[in-house]
Specification:
Elements: E1 5-10, E2 13-17, E3 21-27, E4 30-34, E5 52-57, H1 63-66, E6 78-82, H2 86-89, E7 121-125, E8 130-133, E9 136-142, E10 151-157, E11 160-166, H3 189-202, E12 208-211, H4 221-238, E13 255-256, E14 262-265, E15 268-271, E16 275-279, E17 284-288, H5 295-305, E18 309-314, H6 326-333, E19 336-339, H7 341-348, E20 367-368, E21 373-377, E22 380-386, E23 395-401, E24 404-410, H8 433-447, E25 451-454, E26 459-461, H9 464-484, H10 490-493, H11 497-512
Parallel strand pairs: 4-5, 5-6, 6-7, 11-12, 17-18, 18-19, 19-20, 24-25
Antiparallel strand pairs: 1-2, 2-3, 3-4, 8-9, 9-10, 10-11, 13-14, 14-15, 15-16, 16-17, 21-22, 22-23, 23-24, 25-26
Length: about 525
C-alpha cells in the first residue's frame, strides 16, 4: 500500500497529504513535524534522509490531526500541543469530555474530538510564545477558530517566512468545515475569535502559508488572509441581529395568576419557561410545548383554574425543552400527543438523529398532524405548516383565539431583544436559509397573525416589517456562510456536520467495544 503523497515545498520542507496536511522540516538526518494525521507518512521518512523524528507540533486537538498518535502509548519523539488541549487529549482527563453521541446539549465544545486520547503530550505551546529546535526559533501565534486553543507556527526557513496555520485558514479565503466556528448555537463567538486570529496572521510577513487542509498558498497569502478576515466578519455579523431596529411589543397579560402563570386571553395562559395552556369551552385543556420542569407550574395552574383537564398536547419543535413532558402528561392526565410528522420522525429515533437537545430515549406521538393543512381541537381550528428556522424540524400552528389570530411559533423567531431575534442558526441544528428562514418568514407574512406566542415566555405582537427584514437577513447570512466554504457548497462543507458527527460516533463505539 502506498503512503501519503509527499511533495517538497522548498528545500528541506515537505508536505504529506494525510488525513490532514503533515509538514516535515528536515535538518540533516533529523526532522520536526507539524501535525500528525494517521502517521502512515512515518514510513517514508527514511527515503527523505530523515532517520530521527525529534518533535511533533500539534496545531489543535481534532481527530484528523492526532488520530495516529493513539496507536502507541509511547513514541520516540516529543509531542507538543497548545496549552488547554489537555481537556481533549490527556487520558487523565478523559472524564471531562468525550465524543458523540451527545444528548441534552447544544453545540458541543468540539465537533471532532479524538477517538482515543494520547499520553505523554507536552502542553507547552502558548500563544505568542516560542519554541527552539536545532537553533531555529519557532514563534507561536494564537489563532482560535477550530477550537479556542488552536495555534499557528511561524518559522524563517530557506529565506522565506513560513506560517503553519492549522485550520485557521484555507486556500481561496475560506475555512475548512466552517461549522467548527459555531462554538454555540446562536452567537458569533467562534467567528469573532477566528477573525482575530486571521487578522494576526495577515499582519505578518508571509511567504508560504501552510494550512492543515487544502493546497499550500504561495501566491499573495496576505491579501488572501485579509479577504478571509472580511468574510469572517460578515459571518460574525450574520450571527447578530436578524431584524435590526424593530421594536418589541409585549402585550400586557390580562391577569397574573396566583400561581405565577400569565393569562393573556380569556382562554390562553402561559406557564413555566416554555408552556402555554389553551382552555376550551368544555373545560378541557391543550398544552403547547410540554417541558418536564414546567409541569409543576402547569399543575399549579390547573389547580387554580379548577376542573380543567388536559386532553391534548402539541409541540413546536423537537428540542427536549419543548417536548420531554409528553410521557408524564400522558400518564398523569391521559392527554394525547398530536405531533407534526417532521418532529415525530426525529423524536421516535433519537439515536439516529445526531442533532442537539435530544434525550437518549424515544418520545412517541399518539396522532400525527398533516404536514400542512388544518387540525381541529374542540372548538378551535388550527392552520398547521412546517416552520423551519432555528432548526429544520420545526412547525407553526395558528388559530383564532378570543378574536385574536395567535401563531404558536416555538423558537424560530423571537422578539428583537431576545437572542438577536431568533433562536440562533448553526449547521448542527440544521438551520436552513433560502429553504428555511425565508419561507418561514414569508408564511408569517401570509398568515398575518396578531400575536406570536413563541417559546421561552415570548408572547409578542406581530409586525410585518420585522419578518420582511428577516428575509433579507437570511439571504445575506446564507451568502456569508457559503463564502467561507472551500467548495462553495453548503451541503458539502457546512451541513456535512451531521455525517461527521455520526461517523465519529460509530468509530468511537467500535473503539470502546
Amino acid at each position: 500500500m502506498h503512503g501519503p503523497v509527499c511533495a517538497e515545498l522548498i528545500p528541506d520542507l515537505f508536505r504529506f497529504d494525510d488525513s490532514c496536511n503533515v509538514y516535515v522540516l528536515r535538518d540533516g538526518a533529523a526532522g520536526l513535524a507539524v501535525d500528525f494525521g494517521s502517521g502512515r507518512w512515518l514510513k517514508q521518512l527514511p527515503a527523505l534522509g530523515v532517520r530521527t523524528l525529534e518533535r511533533v507540533l500539534l496545531t489543535h486537538h481534532h481527530d484528523d490531526q492526532v488520530a495516529g498518535l493513539a496507536r502507541r502509548s509511547e513514541w520516540p519523539f516529543a509531542i507538543h500541543a497548545p496549552a488547554g488541549e489537555q481537556r481533549y487529549l490527556d487520558p487523565a482527563r478523559a472524564s471531562e469530555y468525550h465524543g458523540p453521541p451527545w444528548y441534552e446539549i447544544g453545540c458541543p465544545e468540539s465537533y471532532l474530538p479524538p477517538r482515543r486520547r494520547v499520553p505523554g503530550i507536552h502542553y507547552d505551546l502558548t500563544g505568542f510564545g516560542n519554541l527552539l529546535w536545532r537553533g531555529r526559533k519557532i514563534s507561536i501565534i494564537h489563532t482560535p477558530g477550530h477550537g479556542p486553543n488552536a495555534c499557528s507556527f511561524v518559522l524563517e526557513h530557506a529565506g522565506k517566512q513560513v506560517v503553519f496555520c492549522g485550520d485557521a485558514a484555507h486556500a481561496g479565503a475560506t475555512v475548512w468545515q466552517p461549522f467548527h466556528l459555531e462554538w454555540d448555537h446562536w452567537t458569533g463567538t467562534g467567528a469573532l475569535a477566528a477573525w482575530e486570529g486571521v487578522v494576526r496572521l495577515a499582519g505578518l510577513a508571509v511567504d508560504l502559508l501552510c494550512p492543515a487542509h487544502g493546497p499550500v498558498v504561495d501566491q499573495q497569502p496576505r491579501p488572501m488572509l485579509r479577504m478571509l478576515a472580511r468574510r469572517l466578519m460578515r459571518f460574525y455579523e450574520a450571527k447578530g441581529q436578524i431584524s435590526p431596529g424593530e421594536p418589541d411589543h409585549f402585550p400586557s397579560p390580562l391577569k397574573v395568576m396566583g400561581c405565577g402563570a400569565l393569562q393573556y386571553l380569556p382562554h390562553l395562559y402561559q406557564f413555566g419557561a416554555n408552556g402555554y395552556l389553551l382552555v376550551s369551552e368544555q373545560g378541557t385543556g391543550l398544552v403547547v410545548d410540554p417541558y418536564l420542569p414546567d409541569l409543576a407550574a402547569l399543575e399549579a395552574l390547573l389547580a387554580e383554574l379548577g376542573g380543567v383537564r388536559p386532553t391534548a398536547m402539541v409541540v413546536s419543535h423537537y428540542h427536549y425543552d419543548h417536548c420531554d413532558g409528553i410521557a408524564a402528561l400522558r400518564e398523569r392526565h391521559g392527554a394525547e400527543a398530536w405531533l407534526h410528522p417532521w418532529i415525530a420522525e426525529i423524536l421516535k429515533r433519537p439515536e439516529r438523529a445526531f442533532r442537539p437537545w435530544t434525550h437518549d430515549y424515544p418520545i412517541t406521538a399518539d396522532h400525527l398532524w398533516p404536514e400542512a393543512g388544518e387540525w381541529t381541537w374542540e372548538e378551535y381550528r388550527f392552520r398547521v405548516a412546517p416552520w423551519p428556522g432555528q432548526t429544520w424540524w420545526h412547525c407553526a400552528f395558528m388559530a383564532d383565539l378570543d378574536g385574536r389570530r395567535v401563531l404558536f411559533g416555538g423558537d424560530s423567531f423571537v422578539p428583537t431583544s431576545r437572542w438577536n431575534g431568533t433562536g440562533g442558526f448553526c449547521a448542527y441544528n440544521h438551520s436552513r436559509f433560502a429553504d428555511g428562514f425565508v419561507p418561514s418568514a414569508q408564511l408569517a407574512l401570509d398568515w398575518r397573525p396578531d400575536i406570536v406566542a413563541a417559546g421561552h415566555g415570548n408572547y409578542y405582537a406581530f409586525r410585518p416589517s420585522k419578518f420582511r427584514k428577516i428575509i433579507g437577513w437570511a439571504r445575506r447570512a446564507e451568502g456569508a456562510v457559503r463564502d467561507l466554504c472551500p467548495s462553495g457548497d453548503l451541503e458539502r462543507d457546512y451541513y456535512c456536520v451531521r455525517d461527521i458527527v455520526r461517523a465519529q460516533a460509530t468509530l468511537r463505539l467500535r473503539t470502546v467495544e
